TrEMBL record:
<comment type="function">
    <text>Removes the 2'-phosphate from RNA via an intermediate in which the phosphate is ADP-ribosylated by NAD followed by a presumed transesterification to release the RNA and generate ADP-ribose 1''-2''-cyclic phosphate (APPR&gt;P). May function as an ADP-ribosylase.</text>
</comment>
<dbReference type="InterPro" id="IPR022928">
    <property type="entry name" value="RNA_2'-PTrans_KptA"/>
</dbReference>
<dbReference type="InterPro" id="IPR042080">
    <property type="entry name" value="RNA_2'-PTrans_N"/>
</dbReference>
<comment type="similarity">
    <text>Belongs to the KptA/TPT1 family.</text>
</comment>
<dbReference type="Pfam" id="PF01885">
    <property type="entry name" value="PTS_2-RNA"/>
</dbReference>
<dbReference type="GO" id="GO:0003950">
    <property type="term" value="F:NAD+ poly-ADP-ribosyltransferase activity"/>
</dbReference>
<keyword id="KW-0808">Transferase</keyword>
<dbReference type="InterPro" id="IPR002745">
    <property type="entry name" value="Ptrans_KptA/Tpt1"/>
</dbReference>
<protein>
    <recommendedName>
        <fullName>Probable RNA 2'-phosphotransferase</fullName>
        <ecNumber>2.7.1.-</ecNumber>
    </recommendedName>
</protein>
<dbReference type="GO" id="GO:0006388">
    <property type="term" value="P:tRNA splicing, via endonucleolytic cleavage and ligation"/>
</dbReference>
<dbReference type="InterPro" id="IPR042081">
    <property type="entry name" value="RNA_2'-PTrans_C"/>
</dbReference>
<keyword id="KW-0520">NAD</keyword>
<dbReference type="GO" id="GO:0000215">
    <property type="term" value="F:tRNA 2'-phosphotransferase activity"/>
</dbReference>
Length: 185
């Protein structure tokens, strides 16, 4: 079978993000309490929506997704989004000690308010942080000129804030108060 081109891959990834992170009811599926859905159920629901997707194509999206947003269960029978849900799920990640500093990319127009009020999870379950500049910059430029914020994650952790790390190395926390933020030059 021919591999998906980049445009097909991006379109399918965005659709999977929508139904596995935000609106599973859009295609008539239900996620379990940890965000999993049976692969067969997902593929059948997508077919009913006239968006045919084969198992091989689904596997390709999971494998080639640049941010590794999705994962299969160890037996390959279920799939879920790794993080970024706006619906209630319990991903079951264990608390972890973060590196001394983490990064958050944000559009330039958001910097002043963030420095004043801190980073909030908004409609998501957690604030997403990264350990590398490239990923943080890519996230920040989605809505404008990116600015990188440095988070004193080690100090936050020492002060009692909890952190979790996902399989694709995104660090999660409930909030980042202003005292732990600075602009990375």
């Amino acid at each position: 079978m021919k591999a998906m081109d980049d445009k097909q891959l991006a379109k399918t990834s965005k659709f999977l993000s929508l139904v596995l992170r935000h609106q599973p009811d859009k295609i008539g599926i239900e996620l379990d309490e940890q965000g999993w859905v049976e692969v067969a159920t997902l593929l059948a629901a997508i077919r009913r929506e006239s968006r045919p997707l084969t198992l091989a194509q689904l596997q390709e999206v999971v494998t080639r997704n640049d941010k590794q947003r999705f994962m299969f269960s160890s037996d390959g029978l279920r799939i879920r989004a790794v993080q970024g849900h706006s619906i209630e799920v319990e991903l079951g990640y264990e608390a972890a000690a973060p590196p001394e500093y983490l990064l958050h990319g944000t559009p330039e127009q958001s910097v002043a308010i963030i420095l004043e009020t801190g980073l909030k999870k908004m409609k998501r379950h957690h604030v997403h942080l990264h350990h590398d500049r490239q990923t943080a910059s890519a996230v920040g430029q989605r809505r404008g000129k990116p600015v990188l914020l440095q988070i004193a994650a080690g100090r936050m952790h020492a002060d009692g804030y909890s952190f979790y790390v996902t399989p694709n190395q995104v660090w999660l926390t409930d909030e980042v108060p202003p005292a732990y933020l600075s602009i990375l030059e």
